[in-house]
Design brief:
Layout (H helix, E strand, L loop, with lengths): L6 H11 L5 H13 L6 E4 H15 L7 E4 L6 E2 L3 H14 L5 E8 L3 E9 L8 H12 L2 E6 L14 E9 L5 E2 L5 H6 L4 H5 L6
Parallel strand pairs: 1-8, 2-4
Antiparallel strand pairs: 1-3, 4-5, 5-7, 6-7
Helix pairs in contact: 2-4, 3-4, 4-5
Length: 205
């Protein structure tokens, strides 16, 4: 667990050392930190970051083949975005399709911007924490976020019309920003307190 000098993380670290299960509190803290993340001048390769996250998530959860489709960009997509915000946004989309839904994530370049599209079929519809994270990512970069979805209750909730949602982000590229090296899937898989393990808690193997 990354502690730094945050008293909330110090408290959770002490609880974890005493044997307490801190995953639920840590999940809430990670989401709060992601939503409050300040602007950054360092860039992420959005395509590489997303591919690593999805690879780690696929290996971390016990699911049937085909639940997640990922199409990375053929070219790097440097975007000045806090890593914890993007990780939280992507993982919240993936969490909502567990255990029985499916998701597709595509990334591509488009006229000076990174275009990220999420589509999910989920019995629970769009989670309450997902759209604020996506909108925050757009706001920090001066980009755009559009989202749509079917209601959870009513005609759209039957077997023929399962609840679904889609979100598209257009985030301006930052080609001259210092590019951060993406984490490895192993880093996210084998750290008990990584975003993958915490934000997908309850579904990981």
């Amino acid at each position: 667990m990354q502690i730094f000098d945050d008293p909330r993380r110090l408290r959770l670290s002490g609880m974890a050392a005493a044997g307490a299960d801190v995953q639920p509190q840590l999940r809430l803290l990670m989401l709060a930190e992601a939503l409050a993340a300040p602007p950054t001048h360092r860039a992420l390769d959005l395509s590489a970051e997303t591919a690593v996250l999805c690879t780690a998530a696929s290996e971390a959860v016990r699911r049937r083949p085909g639940w997640l489709y990922v199409m990375p960009s053929p070219a790097p997509l440097p975007v000045a975005l806090p890593r914890n915000l993007w990780q939280a946004a992507v993982l919240c989309v993936l969490r909502c399709v567990l255990p029985a839904g499916r998701a597709a994530v595509t990334l591509q370049p488009g006229a000076g911007a990174a275009v990220a599209v999420f589509h999910a079929v989920s019995a629970s519809g769009m989670p309450a924490d997902t759209l604020p994270l996506l909108r925050r990512a757009a706001a920090l970069t001066g980009g755009l976020c559009l989202a749509t979805g079917s209601p959870v209750h009513g005609r759209s909730a039957d077997a023929a019309h399962p609840p679904h949602f889609a979100a598209a982000l257009r985030l301006p590229l930052a080609p001259h920003a210092t590019l951060r090296e993406p984490p490895t899937a192993e880093d996210l898989l084998y750290d008990r307190y990584s975003p993958v393990q915490v934000l997908l808690d309850g579904f990981t193997v």
